[in-house]
Amino acid sequence: MNAFTIAALGLLAGFVPLGVVVLRAREVDALVALELCGVLATLCLMCLGEGFHRGVYFDVPVIAAVTTWIGGLVFARFLGRYL
Amino acid sequence: MSGNAIVDVLLGVAVAIELLCCLGVAVMRNVYDRLHYLSAATSVAPFLILAALLVREGLSSQTLDAIATVAILFIAGPLLVHATARAARRIDYGRPGVAPKGKEE
Fold first, then answer.
1. Do A32 and B21 touch (CB under 8 A)?
2. Do A72 and B34 touch (CB under 8 A)?
3. Which one of B4, B47, B48, B90 has the largest count of C-beta atoms within 10 Å of its C-beta?
4. pTM of this structure
């Protein structure tokens, strides 16, 4: 274990309160929590890539950041239009 | 201060900020308050993690990927917040630009 893997572990703890919001709050509030989950996952993957010293792992957070953005926009558009 | 200590401090502060933002999203009452914490999470902590990476690795292909990731988060974050706030406003008050019922001039 090094500092980056410990940081990734710490970031994982953030999913707990966000999971509660996703399950209990109304849809648009859950969307905010889901978007933050995406940011958290991206940063976690970045830390794991450095923690395991594997260069190829750094491509995953780039894709995660893009898909988080696109997914959030699609959800926001859907919720704004149909709720 | 050695390089390792700087990395530890940067990572510790970044994780603390992210966890604070998660707690903020969980504790706040309405969606507009929660969005403040989302934008803080996309604009502060990623740069601290990137700084830790740069201190540890220097400029390499990994850090260039990390720079791209943080840039995407930093640029896309406000757009996402804006789109979400717009959707929330539309849900709460109707279409943007259209006055709510009873408030027409």
1. no
2. no
3. B48
4. 0.89
